[in-house]
Every structure is written in C-alpha cells, then in structure tokens.
Amino acid sequence: MRRLCGLKPYFELPPGLVLRCREVHFWCLFPEDVIDSSLLKVYESLLSCQERKEVYKAKTEKLQKERLLARTLVRTTLARYAGGCIHPSHLEFTKNNFGKPELLWPKYIVEKHGRKFPALCFNLSHTDSIIACAVTNNLMVGVDVEESKRVTRKDLMALARKKFSLKEASWLGSFQDQERQRQQFLKLWTLKVSYVKALGRGISGSPLKDFTVHLKESFWARKMIEDATALSCLSEAYTIQLELSNAAEVVLQNVGLSHDALHFLLFQPTPLQYASLCVQHPNVKADLHLSTHEDWKFYFWKTLPLAWDEPLKGATALAITG
Amino acid sequence: MATIAFSMSKAAASMCAETKALPLASQKQSLTHYTGLRASTFLAIPKTKVAAAVQQRASLQIRCAAEPKTLEAVQGIVATQLAVDPTIVQPSSKFSELGADSLDTVEIVMALEERFKITMEEEGAEKISTVQDAADLVEDMISSMPKVSS
After folding, report:
1. Which residues of B touch A55 (CB under 8 A)?
2. In which element (H, E) is residue A100 found?
3. Which residue among A6, A137, A174, B32 is buried most deeply as judged by most CB within 10 Å?
C-alpha cells in the first residue's frame, strides 16, 4: 500500500524498515512517475549549487531531468536513514581517489536507541526508464541498471571479444538465438559493471577482461534467492560465480578483500530493465563478529521522493552468488 | 599529414604547446617525439604532399588540434551512437553530458577504430572525456602508425 509522505521537509524510513548490518536496500525511481513539473522545482532546491550546475551541463532536457532525479534520489534516500533528523540538502558528498562518490557527512548515523552505525555506503545508477540507489551499512556496494531492450550498434561478439574475458566471450558465443545472446550479453555487462562500481577503482583500476562472471543454471539458485529476497523467481534461475585473474586478485587485496568477498544479485525491477547489485559480504567484515550461517537480506523499494514510497512489486530475480 | 607538421623545430613545438592547452598528456609526448624526425625521413615524402602540408600548416595552432575533417567525423559517430542531434555535439562536449554510459563509450571507441583504421590503446581510450579528446586521440593514433610509401 502506498504510504503518503506529503511535501514535508524531513524524511523517515517506511515503518518497520531499519538498515541492519546484513542488509542491502535497493531504492528506485521511475522517471515516468514524475508528471508534476512543480515537483521538479522542489527537487532542484534539494541539490547543492555544484550539483545544480552539473544537472544543467547535460545537453538535452531529458538528460537534465535524469541527472536531477538521480541526485534527488540519492539525497532523499540517504536522509531517510538519519531518522528524519537531517534534511536531504544538508548531506555532504565527496569522491574517493578514483572518482567514486561517497557520503562525507554525517560520519555516523545514530540509531533511535543511541547506537552508532558507521556512515552509509551507497551507489547510484540510472538509465532512461529507471534511477536506482543501493544502500548498505558500511558494506562496499555497486549497482548497475540497463534497459533490457537495449540493442547495441556494434556486433555483440565483437564487443565481447574486446571487453569480456575469454571464457565469457566463449560462453556468449554458445548461444545460437540472437535475442537470447543479446539478453545474456546485457546480463553479463550489468554484472561486470556493478563489480567495477562496487570496488570503486574505476574501469581502468579493474579492467573488465581481468575477471570472469560465470552464470550457471542451478536448482539451488531458486532457494538461495528465496532466502535472501522476497522477489519472485523464474524456474530458470542461475548461480553467479566470480573468477579473478592474478591482476584482479591484487586489486581486491589492495582494498582488503578476497575473491569470495563480493556477492551478486541479478534481477529485473520491471521487465524493462536488468539490474545488478554487487555487495561486500558482511561475513568478511571482522569487526561485526557475526555468525557465518546467518543469512543476509535484500529489500526493494520504489519511491517518488517527497510524495510516496512502497515496496517494489513485480520484480524478478534472475541469479545470485552461490 | 600530421607527421610532416611535427617535423618543425623544437622551439616551434614548445611555442605551440604554450599557446594551446593540450587535452591529453600523450599529445605533449607526440610533439616532442616528432620534433626528433630526421631530415631523411622528412625528405622521403613526395614533394607534392610536402607543399600541400606546408600550406596547410601555416599556423602553429592547427598542428596541435585535430583536423577539422577528423573532428567532423568523430562528431557524426558520437551523434549516431548516442542518438542525439549532431548540432549539440560540440568539440568541448563531454560524453557523459551527451548521455553516454560505459557501453556507449566502448561502442564509440570501436566505431572510431573502424572508421579510421586504427587501434586505440586501452589507457588512451579511458582518458577520453570530450569529443575533442577523441578526435585528438584519433589523430595521434593515425600519426603514430607506420607510413606506407606510395
């Protein structure tokens, strides 16, 4: 059921939603839901001066709207986790050495009962039909969204040979049906970009050729998806496994991780998009002292900032690490 | 054509470097590289081509930026890939501002490689930020390819 927030300046999480240590929250906004142009003016007022400048640097009105909605989603979403105490326009951002945006302030989120959580980690991705923001409690995260109907101008196999690993290109080449091959290409692309974004070292820091994402049809994938998400699942579900070259292992070690530290979830928020989440597994964080058997959870929300939010219904999970 | 232009003196080259900001580090490298061209290499080029090149290269400024024709072709490729009106694709336009995502960028690089019969090295391609950068890198790649004497 839609929860109406009204045009109030402060924001709260939907009732009962808390960002726990072992959770990933996916928030999305559909530009087609934004019909009121006066709402866009209000959104603009939430942005920093610099962000407003960046919005208007985009060369078409459609791209400007996309940029505006993206910054709005990030600010309003992160403000929710501050328990309604911080106005979205007061959040401060910085970029790491490789240009990945990070939350600078607040440094800590103080929970209602006085417990202090380290600052939120987030990642943003957007395409024509969706703006997406993933949020975690101090776990590295990357998200990528693509239009599921996207047709490349260049030949898929030429693209795969240029950018994918040998094994991935070979796997892609095994699909005879053109449409199927196109879909698999996009799924792989989305997964790979979400990995690069999670690491936050840029494409040059984690070249696409240096790692292989294996998608395997698996009977167990469905159960794992059901345990981790409330998403519906096709009977044809896949597991995702990550294989790294030596160079890629070194990159991971430099950020303090091992190859089994990053987990993926591939899903379709609506039939029009593919989305991939790549998240640092909470077990890897020694300071949390959590049982290795405890599952972790993904939650999905759809929102029109300042207007309403509701659980994302109708999304389909395609694959999960396992 | 660019190869002949770069055979002028080092002083001229450094003057050019100061008068126009070069978008890529590789640009500076290629300038100093080409000032080292030996006279014999220069003279091996057919006379008609030399005359035309000298006329074209009257201004020091032209040598530093890509040829207008290259820029035009790059603008066309970018406009097609991103499905935008070519008139909004300016030399100073950033790919991101035109709506290019990572997949678009890869496709643009491939289209440029096909059109100009070059291979863009990964590092160079990643540094491309604007349309002008792309055109300059294309020229750089063309210049650095071994010339086949006709």
Report:
1. none
2. none
3. A137
